[in-house]
Structures are given as structure tokens and as C-alpha cells.
């Protein structure tokens, strides 16, 4: 298939581009290096050096023979976006091109404004480029489980049926995000839902949980093809951050009581979910929602797993509770439905000790680059 990947330089975008190219798809990936720029500005550089997107594409082609085309530009520029869609005529657009950090969005007004403007504008431009240039294109949008918040009821897969005063209607499941970043994702969903209803677009919205992982089949042999592996408090996800802390001998920083529970997914499964959605697209006039997670775990449970994995490698990993810089429930009910992607054939990789130990060994190769000051919280919600 002809695939256009927005945000192709990112933690998920680059591994997705390589994997889809290796599986025979015609891939054009686009980025403006926003994540790299913000990481530099906030002293949040990734653990492993990563060449530019163009350089990585050349390295990948030389090693594998597979081509990933690259375009550098700002997708907030509608003319640039429109020309890409018109020229490439993609059958699917994979939309990762958003400021991805919840802590960054909560630093202050400039960061909140950048997050709001970038995320909503790129999604809006994507919708209109498809409408005007290639209406049959299937938009695959990366949402987030954080849109739902932590309600005291089961989280259904995108929609919920309400019975009220003898009448019944089906609605998008209520959203109650806990950060400005997650709120922009809620607004993305609403934008997409509006234009799907109005113009019969076909959209799959993937409500993804936090992702962990370093290696995919395409990057295993060459570290220059690794994704951006951030371990700091702003761009680093919980699992990746804990693994670096374990290797560096820094106690795992559990925020508050540690009962915060989320749905997690391996980076390999993210890629497989994208391709499954491509091969079985949403129908015209359908906003299809999948809860893209493999398992639910609390912060304390993940800390225990990292301690166990570290012990297997000879690390004495400590755990320390610190005051929570975030405004969130530290103990709560959390039971999301996530059967849709399994029905398409997903066989998830779970967060085993072996998986965590393998990641820890990769991290240990770069121990000399770890800046322990980056793992402590630098952003407070209030």
C-alpha cells in the first residue's frame, strides 16, 4: 500500500516507517524535527545518539535494500500538507505528528500554546487535505488512552450506549483528560468525528497506552536505527525511565502511592496494530476506535517487574516514593475493554522479566551517557 507517515522521526514514527517498508509498502515519511528541538530546549536529549531522519533512511536502505522516502517540512503549513497528499496519493495516512509529551504541555503558557496549536492544526490540516485531495484515503490517527481519564466504570472501546428516560443512544465514551496534551487528543477525536459524520471520511482512532521498547526487527543489527529513547521526566515514558534509573543506580521514582494504573503496549505491537488497521480499514462514514493496549499495570507493579529484571542481571534496584508532581488519582479503578485489535489478529508481547532484562542490557551499553538529573520531576501540574 502507499502509506504517508506524519511524524516519521519520532519514537514510534521511525520504527513504523522501517517496518512497513520492509513489509513491502511504499512509504513516505514526514517530519519537521519538532521533538528533537523541544528535547534540546528542555535538556531532554535521548540516551542513544540518533542520526537525522534522512541519514537513518540512507542507513536503513543500505543495510536492507528497502526505501523509506523522506520529506522535511511543517505539517502546520496547509500548502505543504496538501501537496504531499496530492502527490503521494496515499491509501493510508498514519498520523503521529503531534507534540507527544504531557509534562511538556504542563510547563507553562508557551508550552501549552505550542502543544495546542501544533496538535490541533496538524489534525485539522490532515482532514482537509484528505477531503480536497484524496477522499478515499484512510486516516489512522494515534490517540491515547489518556483521553478517557480514570473513570469509576469500565472503559468501553470508543463508544458507550446510554439509556436515559426510556430512550437509548450511542455516544463516544466520555472523555476527561488530565493534561493539556491529552485534552488536545480529545479535541482531535471530536474534530475527526465531526468530519466523518459530515463528509463520510474513513478514520481509525487508536487509543494507545504508554509504549515501551527499543528494538524492532529492522533495528536490531544497527544502533543507529534505534528510535529516540528518552529517559527524562518530560519525554521519557515510565518504563523506559525506570530501566535507565535501574542501570544508573538511581532509586525508581514512584510518584505518590504508585497505584496509578494504565494500559501498556510494546513498540512491536504498536507497529503490528498500525498494519492491521491498514489492511482492514474503517468504512466510509466510520470513526472506528480501538483501545490499543496489551495489559494494565500499576506504577508499583512495573517497579516490581524492573526490580526483578534487574536482579537477574546483578543490579540491586531500589524503589523510592516521592511527592507526586502531577494532579491525578494515585489509587483508582481501571478496567478498559481492548478486544478489537485482538479480533484482527494481534498477539501481544507482554511485559515479562525477560523483555525488561533485554532492554536493560541495551541501556547498559550507554550507561556513560546517562544524566541522572534528568530522571527527577522538573514539571509540576499546579
Describe this structure in words.
- Strand 6 and strand 7 form a beta hairpin.
- The longest helix is centred in the first third of the chain and has 25 residues.
- This protein is globular.
- It is built from 12 helices and 14 strands.
- It has a single domain, classed as 3-Layer(aba) Sandwich (Rossmann fold).
- It has a 7-stranded parallel beta sheet, sandwiched between helices. The protein has a 3-stranded mixed beta sheet with strand order 9-11-13. A two-stranded antiparallel sheet has the order 6-7.
- The chain is an alpha/beta fold and 382 residues long.
- Helices cover 38% and strands 19% of the residues.
- The model has no long low-confidence stretch (mean pLDDT 97).
- Helix 8 runs parallel beside helix 10 and helix 8 crosses helix 12.
- The N and C termini lie far apart (46 Å).
Main CATH class? Alpha Beta
CATH architecture designation: 3-Layer(aba) Sandwich
Q: Please write the string of helix (H) and strand (E) elements.
A: EHEHHEHEHHEEEHEEHEEHEEHEHH
Number of helices: 12
What is the helix content? 25-40%
pLDDT averaged residue by residue? 97
Corresponding CATH superfamily: NAD(P)-binding Rossmann-like Domain
Indicate the structural class.
alpha/beta
Strand order of the largest sheet: 3-2-1-4-5-8-12
How many structural domains can be distinguished in the coordinates?
1
Please report the total strand number as a whole number. 14
How much strand? 15-25%
Main sheet summary? 7 strands, parallel
Kindly report how far apart the N and C termini lie.
Answer: 46 Å
Q: Taking Cα atoms only, what radius of gyration do you get, to the nearest Å?
A: 20 Å
Amino acid at each position: 500500500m502507499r502509506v504517508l507517515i506524519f511524524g516519521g522521526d519520532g519514537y514510534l514514527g521511525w520504527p513504523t516507517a522501517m517496518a512497513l517498508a520492509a513489509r513491502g509498502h511504499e512509504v513516505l515519511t514526514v517530519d519537521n524535527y519538532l521533538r528533537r528541538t523541544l528535547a534540546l530546549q528542555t535538556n531532554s536529549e535521548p540516551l542513544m545518539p540518533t542520526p537525522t531522519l534522512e541519514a537513518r533512511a540512507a542507513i536503513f536502505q543500505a543495510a536492507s535494500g528497502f526505501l523509506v522516502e523522506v520529506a522535511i517540512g511543517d505539517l502546520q503549513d496547509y500548502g505543504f500538507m496538501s501537496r504531499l497528499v496530492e502527490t503521494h496519493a496515499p491509501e493510508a495516512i498514519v498520523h503521529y505528528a503531534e507534540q507527544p509529551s504531557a509534562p511538556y504541555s504542563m510547563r507553562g503558557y508557551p508550552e501549552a500554546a505550542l502543544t495546542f496549536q501544533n496538535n490541533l492544526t496538524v489534525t485539522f490540516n490532515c482532514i482537509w487535505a484528505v477531503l480536497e485531495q484524496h477522499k478515499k484515503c484512510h486516516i489512522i490517527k494515534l490517540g491515547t488512552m489518556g483521553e478517557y481519564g480514570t473513570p469509576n466504570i469500565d472503559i468501553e472501546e470508543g463508544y458507550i450506549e446510554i439509556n436515559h428516560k426510556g430512550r437509548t443512544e450511542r455516544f463516544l465514551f466520555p472523555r476527561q483528560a488530565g493534561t493539556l496534551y491529552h485534552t488536545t487528543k480529545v479535541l482531535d477525536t471530536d474534530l475527526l468525528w465531526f468530519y466523518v459524520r459530515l463528509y463520510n471520511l474513513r478514520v481509525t482512532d487508536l487509543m494507545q497506552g504508554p509504549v515501551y521498547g527499543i528494538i524492532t526487527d529492522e533495528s536490531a543489527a544497527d544502533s543507529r536505527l534505534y528510535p529516540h529513547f528518552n529517559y527524562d521526566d518530560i519525554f521519557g515514558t515510565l518504563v523506559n525511565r525506570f530501566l535507565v534509573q535501574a542501570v544508573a543506580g538511581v532509586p525508581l521514582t514512584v510518584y505518590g502511592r504508585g497505584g496509578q494504573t494504565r494500559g501498556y503496549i510494546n513498540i512491536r505491537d504498536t507497529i503490528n496494530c498500525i498494519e492491521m488497521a491498514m489492511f482492514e480499514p474503517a468504512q466510509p462514514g466510520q470513526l472506528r476506535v480501538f483501545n490499543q493496549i496489551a495489559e494494565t499495570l500499576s506504577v508499583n507493579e512495573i517497579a516490581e517487574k524492573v526490580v526483578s529484571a534487574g536482579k537477574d542481571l546483578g543490579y540491586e534496584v531500589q524503589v523510592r516514593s516521592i511527592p507526586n508532581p502531577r494532579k491525578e488519582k494515585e489509587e483508582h479503578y481501571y478496567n478498559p475493554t481492548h478486544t478489537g485489535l485482538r479480533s484482527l489478529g494481534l498477539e501481544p508481547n507482554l511485559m515479562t522479566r525477560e523483555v525488561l532484562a533485554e532492554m536493560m542490557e541495551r541501556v547498559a551499553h550507554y550507561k556513560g551517557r546517562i544524566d541522572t538529573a534528568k530522571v527527577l520531576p522538573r514539571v509540576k501540574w499546579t
